[in-house]
């Protein structure tokens, strides 16, 4: 279990680095308003960040979600595996929906402050050249400073945990959709109906498919979360006020803003996360007897192979907005 946690950490860091630029573009598009519109679309946002802020502009605030991926993945798999005991047959779609939702709800308490820090750091120095950004004084010096100032201004509940309710509203359906979508893909595209027998390229396609399915059902909540966490403390009274103001001022389209870079992020994230995890697993891990394997296997059809568990771990990293 300790080795899997370490492998998942390294693979999660790699996947985060690969997909993080898309996340920065997503957050920038989600948080801009009609009255202060800096980007006309995803491509325009990519070009302007590259020109104005250099390649490093895409990676603002990355340290917080990068090191949080391992903790979140560990929580999700542990809780989801524990929840299987509630069902006589944990591999049914209904069981996967419920256990995934439980796991997503628990991890949201860790994910919410991590994404608060990420979002606020991503919004610093928009359009500012890298040299000027380095020389300028910004509100937050880094992740720890952001947490400290958030706590000083509004305390733990309304400062550090700001946006927890909408993070729960996003992650409950997201994880509830993810596990059934993955099993659906495996059952239809694996030659034997087992994840371990799928080719590498099909596993990567499956990861992208399931990540997109999870985002599709939860994306509007992610938009609200980004806008609420990025806004100054006095802009919105609460999450519901954020929803009402966003809809009144910009229409329903505001809740789909940034969806393209969000879904595109699933492709490089999975393309890097799984191969790194599988390589480390083959290179350094020792084989286990079937009876000793305890890592969750709910997203497959009762397959207990080492490669099966590797696929499961990689898939979770792709759904996170961190």
TrEMBL record:
Major site of localization recorded for this protein: mitochondrion
Keywords, sorted A to Z: Membrane, Mitochondrion, Repeat, Transmembrane, Transmembrane helix, Transport
Tell me one GO biological process term. mitochondrial L-ornithine transmembrane transport
The ranges of the Solcar repeats are: 6-86, 91-188, 198-283
Give the InterPro entries listed for this entry: MCP, MCP_dom_sf, MCP_transmembrane, Mitochondrial_Carrier
What membrane topology does the annotation report for this chain?
Multi-pass membrane protein
Q: Which residue ranges does UniProt annotate as crossing the membrane? A: 58-80, 92-114
Q: State what protein this is by name.
A: Uncharacterized protein
Q: Which GO terms describe its molecular function?
A: high-affinity L-arginine transmembrane transporter activity
The entry's localization annotation reads: Mitochondrion membrane
Its cellular-component GO annotations read:
mitochondrial membrane
Upper classification of the organism: Eukaryota, Metazoa, Spiralia, Gnathifera, Rotifera
Under the heading Gene3D superfamilies, the entry gives:
Mitochondrial carrier domain
Family membership, please give it: Belongs to the mitochondrial carrier (TC 2.A.29) family.
């Amino acid at each position: 279990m300790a080795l899997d946690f370490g492998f998942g950490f390294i693979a999660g860091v790699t996947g985060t680095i690969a997909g993080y630029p898309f996340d920065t573009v997503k957050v920038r598009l989600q948080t801009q308003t009609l009255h202060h519109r800096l980007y006309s679309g995803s491509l325009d946002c990519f070009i302007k960040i590259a020109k104005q802020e250099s390649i490093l502009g895409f990676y603002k605030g990355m340290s917080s979600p990068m090191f949080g991926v391992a903790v979140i993945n560990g929580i999700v798999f542990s809780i989801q595996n524990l929840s299987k005991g509630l069902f006589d047959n944990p591999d049914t779609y209904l069981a996967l929906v419920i256990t995934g939702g439980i796991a997503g709800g628990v991890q949201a308490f860790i994910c919410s402050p991590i994404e608060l820090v990420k979002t606020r750091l991503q919004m610093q120095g928009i359009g500012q050249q890298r040299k000027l950004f380095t020389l300028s004084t910004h509100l937050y010096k880094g992740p720890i400073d952001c947490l400290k100032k958030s706590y000083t201004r509004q305390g733990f509940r309304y400062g550090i945990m700001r946006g927890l309710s909408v993070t729960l509203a996003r992650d409950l359906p997201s994880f509830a959709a993810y596990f059934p979508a993955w099993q659906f893909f495996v059952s239809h595209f694996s030659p034997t109906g087992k994840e371990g027998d799928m080719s590498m390229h099909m596993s990567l396609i499956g990861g992208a498919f399931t990540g997109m399915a999870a985002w599709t059902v939860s994306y509007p909540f992610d938009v609200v979360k980004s806008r609420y966490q990025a806004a100054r403390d006095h802009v919105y009274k609460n999450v519901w006020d954020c929803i009402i103001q966003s809809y009144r001022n910009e229409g329903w389209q505001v809740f789909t803003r940034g969806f393209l870079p969000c879904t595109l992020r699933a492709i490089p994230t999975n393309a890097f996360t799984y191969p790194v995890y599988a390589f480390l697993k083959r290179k350094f891990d020792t084989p286990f007897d079937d009876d000793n394997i305890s890592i969750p296997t709910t997203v497959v059809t009762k397959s207990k192979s080492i490669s099966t568990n590797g696929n499961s771990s990689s898939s979770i990293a792709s759904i996170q907005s961190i």
